Amino acid sequence: MTISLSANPTPATTLVPLLQTESLAEKLAALASLLNIPIETLQADFKGDVKETLPLYLANGQKIYLLGMGKAPGQNDWFRGVRRFFYDHKANLPQALTVDLRGFDNDVIQGVVLGIRGGGYDLKLYQTDKPEGPALYGPDGQVTLLLSGEGAATDVLARAEAIAQTQHEMIDLMNAPGNYKTPQTLAEWAVKSGEEHGYRVRVLDKAQIEAEGLHALLSVNRGSDHEPRFIIMEYSPEGVENPRTVGLVGKGITFDTGGISIKPSANMHLMKSDMGGAAAVLGTVEVAAKLKLPVRVVGIVPSTENMVDGSATRPGDVVGSYLGKTIEVIDTDAEGRIILADGLGYMVRNFQPDVLIDLATLTGSVIATLGYHAAGLFTNNDELAAQLTRAADQTGERVWRLPLWDVYSEDIKSDVADLKNFSGKPLAGAITAGKFLEVFTENHPAWVHLDIAGTAFGDTEFGSQKNATGFGIRLLMQWLSEL
Q1: Mean pLDDT in residue range 68-84
Q2: What is the widest separation between alpha-carbon atoms in the chain?
Q3: Percentage of the chain modeled with pLDDT above 70
């Protein structure tokens, strides 16, 4: 499918988004006149409510869909509303379609394009008897965005397409089951992406991980038949002197049983999603390279499974780390923070980033606190917190700041090691996890931890169970573009 821009109306089937503003009555009156029906009939049938859809037919056979967008939709509302429309109607849409965006600013284009692309997503990745796909989403499908004037819209379209394609691949990776997705799978994706988009990728195998002293990552990997991988990606802009360096670290647990502290069987199958932080980092580095952002972006993904066998790390074991600090493992299901300890330490020591951000599907505690609508944001840097919150509000990938007060450090003090990985208390779990990670940032003044456990996997129109959202890529790209 191709998405293009035009300022010239065509007689194709048209999607007309409408807002619940004072102009709605005027627009409905014009449509009623065109359709030769009483305005009262149209007003009774269409109110412009969010996701409300009304199909209409002109005398010449042309079909018009009215799509309600509510009163003041943001970028995420456009994305989700348009995605829902295309997903619900794609089987009946023709091969060519126009979306009438006249009267709207260019800033709606990204949400619309992401919605169009997202509406064609197929969660049935391994179904063997899938029917032929919708004509609109075939190679000859064509969607035209009808604008008042193209202007700078071309750049917005290119940006949206770059994000959509990468986000689609990350969602596929997250939705892939554990037997189709190992640490090596993530490494191969990164290597291929780097070759295609011109950024450096280095992958450390188990022997190299041992040589580098990444003992925390190795401790989580001990129960798995699949070797760990430590993925290092580096995008450097050409022609930019002394660019700012942003370091991104993502949790890459490709399947999480909980280890010896094994999880209940109910919903364990969803732990294929425990690499949501890795997906955000992999995707952001690729999009930054595609768009040639004037900032250096370094991504690190420590990746392993967390499995159970006779070699698996036990509760009570003390393990090392890249920075040399020792960790008492109280709960082997608190493994994400352990591998991030090595990712953060390696990033700080080897790349000295100006800004350091880690993302992880880290705790159930953050879901208990914020539900599935926002990620937890932890930082002692007020400026960074404000910047990321502003970007989150713009994209709809929301965050909410939680404290990192030193009083919570009491919960990770160990009797036998430098610190322990779990407090053992049924409260403040997301905060104490953040305090654990803080130890491995070496007091970096511009560090942010994003706990995306509740937002990386969610309820969508694509399936009956929770599935990948691709959370974090749009948020980070919005923030990076404003640096």
Answers
A1: 97
A2: 82
A3: 100
Domains annotated for the chain, with CATH where assigned, are: 2-159 (3.40.220.10), 182-481 (3.40.630.10)
| Residues annotated as part of the active site | 263, 337
Q: Locate 139 and state its tokens.
A: 């190679």
Taking residues 258-283, report their average pLDDT.
Answer: 97
Averaged confidence pLDDT in the chain: 96
The pLDDT score that the predictor gives to residue 202 is: 98
Question: What is the token pair recorded at 166?
Answer: 């990468």
User: CB neighbours (10 Å) of residue 273?
Assistant: 24
> Which of 263, 273, 255, 268 has its CA nearest to residue 182?
255
Pairing of strands 142-146, 2-6: parallel
Q: Mind listing the pLDDT tens digit for each residue in 367-413?
A: 999 999 999 999 999 999 999 999 999 999 999 999 999 999 999 99
Query: Phi then psi for 238, rounded to 5 degrees?
Result: -85, 140
d(CA 258, CA 332): 6
Alpha-carbon gap, residue 377 to 389, rounded angstroms: 9
- Per DSSP, 350 falls in state H
Instruction: Look at residue 151 and tell me whether its pLDDT is greater than 80.
Output: no
H helices of 363-454, where?
364-370, 382-395, 429-439
| Alpha carbon 383 to chain centroid, angstroms | 23
Q: How many CB atoms lie within 10 A of CB 182?
A: 22
Beta bridge partners of 447: 356
Rounded to whole angstroms, the Cα distance separating 130 from 133 reads 8
